[in-house]
Sequence to fold (125 residues):
Amino acid sequence: MSVDEIGKFIGALLILTGGIASVISVFGLIRLPDVYTRSHAATKSSTLAVLLTLSGAFLYFLFSEHFISVRLLLGIVFVFLTAPVAGHLIIRAAYRSNVKLADISAEDELYEVLHGKEGEDNADR
Fold:
C-alpha cells in the first residue's frame, strides 16, 4: 500500500465515523427528555460528526488529488467555534424563558447562580 492509499482509507474511515456519530446524535435527539439534554446531544455529537466528516473529506482530497481545500479548513474552524457557542446561547435563552427541566433532572444548579441563595442574601443585608 502506498501513502496515498492509506491517506484515502483514513479519510474514508473518518467520513464513515462522522456518519455513525451523526446517527447516534439523532438517537440522542429522539430519546432524551427535555430541551436541555436534547441540545447537549445536538451540539456535542453533531459537532463531532461534522468535524469528523469535514476532516475526512479534507484528508481524502489531500491524498487523492493532492489538493488542500481552504474551504474545508475554514468549515472545520467555523463549526468548531460556532456550534458550541450557538448551542449554549439557545439553551440560555430557553432557561431564561422558563422552559421546565425534565422530571428526572436532579437539581437546577443555575438557579442558585442567577438568583442567589435566599439565606445568604438576607444575612448580608
Q: What stands out?
A: The chain has one domain: 3-124. The chain has five helices and no strands.
